[in-house]
Give the backbone structure.
Amino acid sequence: MGVSGIRAVRTVDGRSFSTEWFPTAGPTPDAEDVAHAIRVVVDRPDAPHSLGVAFPDPGYSAALKAALVEEYVSEVRVISEVAGILEQLSADPDFRYRTVALYDLGATGLEMTVADIDSGTVYAATRTSEMSGEVLDRAVRDHLLTLDILAIPRTESEEHALLEFSREIKEALSTHEATQTSDGAFRLLDRHMFELQIMRAAEHSATALRDLAEMSEIPPEVVVTVGGGARIPLLKEVLERYLRIPVVVPVDPELISARGAALYAARVDQQQTAESGASRWSVTSLLTPLVRFGLPTLAALGFFTWMLWPGAGEEPSLTGTQDTAVEKPTVEIVSTTTPAPKAAVATTVVIPTSDAPSVTTTAPPAVSTAESRYVPDRSTDVNSEAPPAPPPPQPFQLPPLQLPKFQLPELPRLPLP
C-alpha cells in the first residue's frame, strides 16, 4: 500500500513477480479499498490460490479483516509489513545475514526496526515523522517556488497538484542527475542541490538508527533500506558512514513487503495442504497393512486353531490332524426314540473254597445319565476269542503251630507234723 494506490504482486515460482497497481480516490488507501481490490482479484478467472496482505500497523489489520468479511472474502493471510520484509529476505538465497536493521522510508514516516530473520524476533523498533516521503516532497516544492516560474497555489487542488509534481521530480533524481521542463527552457532541480536540502534530515535519521542498534539486544549485521525513499542514493551513503556496516538496497524496495506477504501466504497454504494430506494418508497407512496382512493372519490362526483343537466328536492326534489309519464305524440315527436298555448280563463269581458252592448273581443294567461315546460291540463277533479267565485266588490259611512240651520234675512229699 502506497500513496494514492495499492500495489499487488503475483508469483508462480517464488522468484519472478508481476506487479499490478490499483489506484484509490484518497491520498492513502484504507481497509475498504484494499478489501475491494482483493475482491476484484478473486473474481477473475485466473484467481490465485493464495492471498496475502501486508498491513502497516495492528489497528489497520483489524479494520482490514472486518472489511474482508463485508466483501465475502476468506482465506486471506494478513501479516505485518516487517514480517513480510523478513519473509522475503529469508527466501533470498543471496542474502546471508541474520540480524538486520530495517530502514523503511514511507510516505508518512520512517520506521526503523532491528530484527532476526530466522526467528522473526524484533529486538528494537521506533518510528519518526521527521523523515518521510512527504517531508522530501515539500523540500522540492519549496525549491520550485523559489525559481519564480510557478505561481503560489491558492486552492487545495492546486497544492495537491504541486506536491504530485514535486514527487515526480524527487523520484526522477534517484536515477538522473538533473531535471528540467519538457521544453528544456528551465532547469528545475539537480541531484546535488536536492541532497543539500535533505542532508540534515538524512543525518538525523542515521543517528536515530545508530542509537537504536546500540540499544538492541543483538547488534545488526546489515542495514536494509525499503520503501519508496530507499532509492535515494544519499541515504545509502549517510547510513554507511554513520553505522559502519553494509547497506543493502533490494530491487524494487517499495514492493518487498508485498512480495513477502505473497510468499508467506503460499507457504502457509502449502503447509496446511501437506498436513491434511498427511492425516489422510496416515489413516490409509493404518488400514492398508491391516487389510493386507491382518486378515490373512487371522484366517491362518483360525485354521491352525481348528486343526489343533477339534470340535466335539473328533479325536485329536499328536500331529494335529485326524488319525485316518483306523476306520471308525459310522452311526446312522433313524429316530429320536431312546432305545431300550440291553438285557442283564449274568456273571459267575467263584469263591475259592473247597466246600462252598458256586454262587450266581445277576447285575442290574447300568443306567447312565450322561451321554457316553459310542463303543462298538464285538462280543458277537465270530472270529474274536474271549479272553481266558483269571486264575482263582488262593484261600487264606494259617500255618500250623506246634507248642513245645516241658517235663516238670517231681517234688518230694513233705512230712506232715
In short: The longest strand covers residues 5-11.
